[in-house]
């Protein structure tokens, strides 16, 4: 039995290293860098907001500062019971390119954010739809312009990156790690021409490519307004990545473990709707990641030579951490190298717990 576990452990290490070098490592190559165009298509920035009065004033101010030559901002106020409406009205007064869409009730069969986005999209008048969340801020005045310039005649979808504000708590360090690891996966797979998801905090799509009928068909599913749409529409020919800091938005992280687990449960719950091939690839990476740790600890207490186990796991870890740290630097989201082993281990415990919760939870709400 020990010999079987050893073979499985070594297989996990090989698979992990292949993922690191062939998928994650692609993000270090100039090939995965930004597509630059002299054309700057018009942009409609769409933001769904519910009870976000504390964030809206700063967000609207940041949108006013965008240097894009032809853009509009559509803020969909989804059944807020705080003072969001008055905050928005005051902030956009006399601004012709800003509008507030107020939703007072949901039609049957719709969840909040999907209906809010559908209303915003239908009111958009520009060529490119650019999405972010109400608790996000663009990292630069060029955000909208940079995202728009990534489009050309063959590109319909642009995937951006969106880190969280840095803090000093263990939770914040873990959020930074998990966010970058998620980015390594969806941007890495896109870089090898297998795009499967993006994040609603920062992505863009050509208006003519967006499928409102599909959005309506999954209206009852909480979450997935971003990654399920991308999973359906993205191909190796029509999708591009943007990773430089000036193309990013930055979001406010959760400040309690319970709220963070609730957020991640919502995110992971939609993964069952991905294409089968995407689920298979992600499943292989995740299972070899988790079982690699399990087999590592079980073999350390066995009669097998510990130097072989430590060498194999050390090679896997060096492969992972070196690429992880360099991509973090490139994205402007550095992770302290010394903290990676601890965060790596924490992730191996966290992921199965949240995944099981996502699969077993029947009621998941948007804010």
Structure description:
- The chain is an alpha/beta fold.
- The protein is 49% helix and 12% strand.
- The protein has a 7-stranded mixed β-sheet with strand order 3-2-1-4-7-6-8, sandwiched between helices. A two-stranded antiparallel ribbon has the order 5-9.
- The longest helix has 26 residues.
- The protein is elongated.
- The model has no long low-confidence stretch (mean pLDDT 91).
Features:
single chain; 367 residues; alpha/beta; Spore Coat Polysaccharide Biosynthesis Protein SpsA, Chain A; 2 domains; seven-stranded mixed β-sheet; two-stranded antiparallel ribbon; 12 helices; elongated
So what's the oligomer here? single chain
Low-confidence sequence ranges:
none
The side-by-side strand order for the widest beta sheet comes to 3-2-1-4-7-6-8
- How many H/I helices? 12
What is the CA-CA span between the terminal residues?
Answer: 48 Å
Secondary-structure arrangement, i.e. CATH architecture of the largest domain: Alpha-Beta Complex
CATH topology of the largest domain: Spore Coat Polysaccharide Biosynthesis Protein SpsA, Chain A
- Main β sheet profile: 7 strands, mixed
